[in-house]
Amino acid sequence: MCFNSTVKPRTLVGATFLKFLAENDSAFDLLYCITFKLMDHEWLTMRASYMDFNAVMKCTRRQLERELLSEDIMRLEDLPSYTLLTR
């Protein structure tokens, strides 16, 4: 995947993701899949209805940000949520 190297991310999470993207051409696809599996997991755990969509999204975002900012994560495959892809 090609991206403009002059883009400056506005957040630390964005900078972390750009690092993963520079190292792995499939980083976007992989994080996309992880995100939707995590969102589904949160949805079922919270027993959410359509009225809870925003709360589920907020929870999913917070969880992903926490995982991406963890110091022991060197690649997307190290994310704890990565294991959701095998379920």
UniProtKB/TrEMBL annotation:
Pfam family name, one: ELMO_CED12
InterPro entries cross-referenced by the UniProt entry: ELMO_dom, ELMO_domain-containing
Domain ELMO residue range list: 1-68
This protein's name: ELMO domain-containing protein
Organism this protein belongs to: Populus alba x Populus x berolinensis
